[in-house]
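name: query_chain
kind: protein
chains: 1
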Amino acid sequence: MPMIAEGPFKGERVELIQNSLGIMNRLIPSALYELELNFISMHIRKYIEREETLEGKEQHLFDYLKLIDNRQYENTIDFYKNLDDKSKYEFFNELVEKGIPILQPPFWGNISLEKMTELYKTYPEVQEFKFEGIHKPIIMGEMYMMVLKHDTKGKMSVRSTSLNSINGLPAKSKAYRDHKLPWSSTPLRLG
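structure:
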Protein backbone atom coordinates (compact mmCIF):
# COMPACT_ATOMS: atom_id res chain seq x y z
CA MET A 1 0.00 0.00 0.00
CA PRO A 2 1.21 3.56 -0.64
CA MET A 3 3.14 5.47 2.02
CA ILE A 4 3.01 9.24 2.63
CA ALA A 5 6.29 10.70 1.32
CA GLU A 6 6.45 14.10 3.03
CA GLY A 7 4.91 16.45 5.59
CA PRO A 8 3.75 15.93 9.19
CA PHE A 9 2.28 12.48 8.38
CA LYS A 10 5.37 11.17 6.54
CA GLY A 11 5.76 7.42 6.80
CA GLU A 12 2.10 6.60 7.46
CA ARG A 13 0.81 3.84 5.22
CA VAL A 14 -2.59 3.62 3.56
CA GLU A 15 -4.71 0.78 4.95
CA LEU A 16 -7.71 1.04 2.65
CA ILE A 17 -8.27 2.56 -0.79
CA GLN A 18 -11.82 3.59 -1.64
CA ASN A 19 -12.95 3.69 -5.25
CA SER A 20 -14.69 7.05 -5.59
CA LEU A 21 -16.40 5.94 -8.81
CA GLY A 22 -18.08 3.14 -6.87
CA ILE A 23 -19.40 5.72 -4.42
CA MET A 24 -20.70 8.00 -7.16
CA ASN A 25 -22.31 5.09 -9.05
CA ARG A 26 -24.22 4.20 -5.89
CA LEU A 27 -25.30 7.84 -5.50
CA ILE A 28 -23.86 8.15 -1.96
CA PRO A 29 -21.48 11.11 -2.29
CA SER A 30 -21.78 11.81 1.45
CA ALA A 31 -19.08 9.14 1.92
CA LEU A 32 -16.70 11.39 -0.04
CA TYR A 33 -17.61 14.33 2.20
CA GLU A 34 -16.87 12.16 5.25
CA LEU A 35 -13.47 11.26 3.81
CA GLU A 36 -12.67 14.93 3.09
CA LEU A 37 -13.72 15.99 6.61
CA ASN A 38 -11.68 13.14 8.05
CA PHE A 39 -8.68 14.34 6.01
CA ILE A 40 -9.02 17.95 7.23
CA SER A 41 -9.55 16.73 10.81
CA MET A 42 -6.17 14.99 10.70
CA HIS A 43 -4.57 18.41 10.16
CA ILE A 44 -6.69 20.12 12.84
CA ARG A 45 -5.52 17.46 15.31
CA LYS A 46 -1.91 18.36 14.45
CA TYR A 47 -2.70 22.05 15.16
CA ILE A 48 -4.21 21.10 18.51
CA GLU A 49 -1.25 18.87 19.34
CA ARG A 50 1.31 21.63 18.59
CA GLU A 51 -0.63 24.29 20.51
CA GLU A 52 0.61 24.69 24.08
CA THR A 53 -2.15 26.82 25.61
CA LEU A 54 -5.62 25.58 26.38
CA GLU A 55 -7.07 28.71 24.76
CA GLY A 56 -5.22 27.95 21.51
CA LYS A 57 -6.44 24.34 21.50
CA GLU A 58 -10.00 25.55 22.10
CA GLN A 59 -9.82 28.05 19.26
CA HIS A 60 -8.58 25.46 16.74
CA LEU A 61 -11.24 22.91 17.66
CA PHE A 62 -14.25 25.17 18.08
CA ASP A 63 -13.56 27.30 14.99
CA TYR A 64 -13.35 24.09 12.98
CA LEU A 65 -16.54 22.57 14.44
CA LYS A 66 -18.46 25.80 13.87
CA LEU A 67 -17.60 25.67 10.16
CA ILE A 68 -18.70 22.04 9.86
CA ASP A 69 -21.93 21.84 11.83
CA ASN A 70 -23.38 24.48 14.14
CA ARG A 71 -25.37 21.92 16.18
CA GLN A 72 -22.28 19.86 16.88
CA TYR A 73 -20.38 23.02 17.78
CA GLU A 74 -23.05 24.07 20.30
CA ASN A 75 -23.31 20.57 21.84
CA THR A 76 -19.54 20.32 22.19
CA ILE A 77 -19.35 23.79 23.79
CA ASP A 78 -22.11 22.84 26.28
CA PHE A 79 -20.24 19.65 27.21
CA TYR A 80 -16.88 21.43 27.39
CA LYS A 81 -18.11 24.22 29.71
CA ASN A 82 -18.82 21.66 32.45
CA LEU A 83 -15.23 20.33 32.51
CA ASP A 84 -12.56 21.42 34.99
CA ASP A 85 -9.09 22.39 33.68
CA LYS A 86 -7.60 18.91 34.16
CA SER A 87 -10.53 17.33 32.31
CA LYS A 88 -10.19 19.89 29.51
CA TYR A 89 -6.56 18.84 28.92
CA GLU A 90 -7.63 15.17 29.02
CA PHE A 91 -10.37 15.99 26.50
CA PHE A 92 -7.83 17.46 24.06
CA ASN A 93 -5.33 14.63 24.64
CA GLU A 94 -8.05 12.15 23.72
CA LEU A 95 -8.92 14.13 20.57
CA VAL A 96 -5.28 14.13 19.50
CA GLU A 97 -4.95 10.41 20.19
CA LYS A 98 -8.28 9.09 18.88
CA GLY A 99 -9.58 11.75 16.49
CA ILE A 100 -12.25 14.42 16.28
CA PRO A 101 -15.75 12.91 16.18
CA ILE A 102 -17.76 14.58 13.44
CA LEU A 103 -21.51 14.38 13.00
CA GLN A 104 -22.74 14.05 9.43
CA PRO A 105 -26.35 12.84 9.10
CA PRO A 106 -26.79 9.95 6.65
CA PHE A 107 -28.82 11.73 3.97
CA TRP A 108 -29.86 15.34 4.55
CA GLY A 109 -28.25 18.11 6.57
CA ASN A 110 -24.68 17.24 5.57
CA ILE A 111 -22.01 19.86 5.01
CA SER A 112 -22.51 21.59 1.66
CA LEU A 113 -20.01 21.87 -1.17
CA GLU A 114 -19.85 25.63 -0.50
CA LYS A 115 -18.93 25.02 3.16
CA MET A 116 -16.36 22.41 2.14
CA THR A 117 -14.78 24.97 -0.20
CA GLU A 118 -14.82 27.49 2.66
CA LEU A 119 -12.94 24.97 4.83
CA TYR A 120 -10.13 24.71 2.29
CA LYS A 121 -9.98 28.51 2.04
CA THR A 122 -9.85 28.77 5.85
CA TYR A 123 -7.07 26.17 6.06
CA PRO A 124 -4.97 26.69 2.89
CA GLU A 125 -2.05 24.74 4.39
CA VAL A 126 -4.17 21.57 4.24
CA GLN A 127 -2.86 20.04 1.04
CA GLU A 128 -3.20 16.64 -0.55
CA PHE A 129 -0.61 14.05 0.44
CA LYS A 130 2.19 13.03 -1.87
CA PHE A 131 2.79 9.28 -1.81
CA GLU A 132 5.91 7.30 -2.60
CA GLY A 133 5.57 5.66 -6.00
CA ILE A 134 2.27 7.39 -6.89
CA HIS A 135 2.35 10.38 -9.22
CA LYS A 136 -1.25 11.54 -8.84
CA PRO A 137 -2.14 13.01 -5.43
CA ILE A 138 -4.91 11.27 -3.52
CA ILE A 139 -6.89 12.24 -0.45
CA MET A 140 -6.37 10.08 2.61
CA GLY A 141 -8.39 10.16 5.78
CA GLU A 142 -7.86 8.18 8.92
CA MET A 143 -9.54 4.82 9.33
CA TYR A 144 -12.78 5.02 11.22
CA MET A 145 -15.63 2.69 11.99
CA MET A 146 -19.25 3.72 12.00
CA VAL A 147 -21.61 1.65 14.08
CA LEU A 148 -25.19 1.65 12.87
CA LYS A 149 -28.21 0.30 14.70
CA HIS A 150 -30.53 -1.49 12.37
CA ASP A 151 -34.10 -2.16 13.28
CA THR A 152 -35.91 -4.17 10.63
CA LYS A 153 -39.36 -3.25 11.88
CA GLY A 154 -40.86 -0.77 9.45
CA LYS A 155 -37.89 -0.95 7.04
CA MET A 156 -37.66 -2.19 3.49
CA SER A 157 -34.91 -4.10 1.72
CA VAL A 158 -34.56 -4.86 -1.97
CA ARG A 159 -32.68 -7.79 -3.50
CA SER A 160 -32.32 -9.13 -6.99
CA THR A 161 -34.14 -12.41 -7.65
CA SER A 162 -31.97 -13.39 -10.59
CA LEU A 163 -28.96 -15.67 -10.53
CA ASN A 164 -25.79 -14.62 -8.75
CA SER A 165 -22.45 -14.28 -10.50
CA ILE A 166 -19.36 -16.21 -9.37
CA ASN A 167 -18.61 -13.21 -7.12
CA GLY A 168 -21.93 -13.69 -5.33
CA LEU A 169 -23.41 -10.52 -6.88
CA PRO A 170 -26.72 -10.30 -8.77
CA ALA A 171 -26.22 -11.10 -12.45
CA LYS A 172 -26.62 -8.25 -14.95
CA SER A 173 -27.68 -8.51 -18.57
CA LYS A 174 -25.04 -8.02 -21.28
CA ALA A 175 -26.80 -4.88 -22.54
CA TYR A 176 -26.66 -3.35 -19.03
CA ARG A 177 -22.98 -4.26 -18.60
CA ASP A 178 -22.21 -2.69 -22.00
CA HIS A 179 -23.97 0.52 -20.87
CA LYS A 180 -26.73 0.19 -23.48
CA LEU A 181 -29.45 0.24 -20.82
CA PRO A 182 -29.70 3.07 -18.25
CA TRP A 183 -30.84 0.64 -15.51
CA SER A 184 -30.79 -3.03 -14.74
CA SER A 185 -33.82 -5.06 -15.86
CA THR A 186 -33.20 -7.78 -13.26
CA PRO A 187 -36.38 -8.59 -11.27
CA LEU A 188 -36.38 -7.44 -7.66
CA ARG A 189 -37.86 -8.86 -4.47
CA LEU A 190 -39.03 -6.42 -1.83
CA GLY A 191 -38.88 -7.43 1.82
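note: Helices lie at 20-25, 30-50, 54-68, 70-81, 85-98, 113-122, 174-177.
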